[in-house]
């Protein structure tokens, strides 16, 4: 497994303070982590905070990183998801304290859909999913993790992952059916 | 690997989408056999899953900003100079600082001599400014190390 980790040599060079490796790893991981955090949280600013904290932990981890059962990318996903869950938990606590609920400001189905509107609708539909279903869809569909990698990141069996994916995609289909070709 | 049932094919499309390359590796061969044997059924199932995939792909999250990249790079590990290189570097910095201080003092003395000491404070501030500039990077690095 270690030999097949595409980040291994880069992480080793980062640990030695190689500036080119630092930039290369940041360039490789920032878009990926931003995609993950934005889809989990639905907000770009919060996503950037999560990405920054994740990368700081990556820099700290680099010197002691020992390739083992998990790939570096998988570890990075786990860290970012934990940080996302911290924020989602805090949001729920604030909501319980009486903050007004967010409303879906997506356009009516009969209105022409601009690209930004489509994005908003999809984002809202994803945010409406239970967290674990959103996590499963994000990891497999958007982050292109295999079922085995995604199940490992989530700490569930492959069967449980598949169940979360099915339920998540069914809910998304129901929410977005008017946007799909007949 | 046994034959895949149509129901299982539908389950996989429902869970993993219309692109069979994303399906579990262990089931792709059986799925391909079913597609070859029942192309009409398979295409209909995959098209339905594709339609959802396309809508999901229409949402592109915000790209990572340049400011985020800068913040991330600012926290990254720095190369530590060790051994002979570090000794030479420290020696060079020390000599530079000593030179700057000496130049500052000489300048201060000459200016104070010429103008009765009115510019001495400014000259020392300038010399200290050069010193501060030299020490900023190591101070930041150690602060990051402590934070880590």
TrEMBL record, chain A:
Residues 28-92 form the RNA polymerase sigma-70 region domain. Keywords: DNA-binding, Sigma factor, Transcription, Transcription regulation. InterPro entries: RNA_pol_sigma-70-like, RNA_pol_sigma-70_dom, RNA_pol_sigma70_ECF_CS, RNA_pol_sigma70_r2, RNA_pol_sigma70_r4_t2, RNA_pol_sigma_r2, RNA_pol_sigma_r3/r4-like, WH-like_DNA-bd_sf. Residues 121-172 form the RNA polymerase sigma factor 70 region 4 type domain. Pfam families: Sigma70_r2, Sigma70_r4_2. It comes from the Bacteria. The keyword DNA-binding applies. PANTHER family: RNA POLYMERASE ECF-TYPE SIGMA FACTO, RNA POLYMERASE SIGMA FACTOR HI_1459-RELATED. PROSITE patterns: SIGMA70_ECF. The keyword Transcription regulation applies. This is RNA polymerase sigma factor. Belongs to the sigma-70 factor family. ECF subfamily.
